[in-house]
Amino acid sequence: MPEDSWVTCPRCYENAAEKLRADKKTLIESWEGETEIEIEDFEASYYKSQLEYDRSSFITFRQNYKFYWAENDLIKWVYSGGCSECGLALLERGEIKVHFGKKELKG
Length: 107
Prior knowledge:
By secondary structure, the chain is of the alpha+beta class. It contains two helices and four strands.
């Protein structure tokens, strides 16, 4: 049975993290040379940039996975995912061999 879920896109999140680091650097550089800084102004600018980096803003990656019995002792799985924003796409397949031990019935 397939299962879908939406999660944070790792590529979009890392791109946003890189932008945040650049924005922080720019913010700090813009305040350099100032003899007096109103802490409220600095915090307001800093927290505004933080809001854009909220992890929930990047829930753009849809992942789908399914497991199914192929034979008596083999489970197959398929994982796929794709981002609706940046186009990141993944597809993986595999098999899991299951070993069943015999269970004795007590009478």
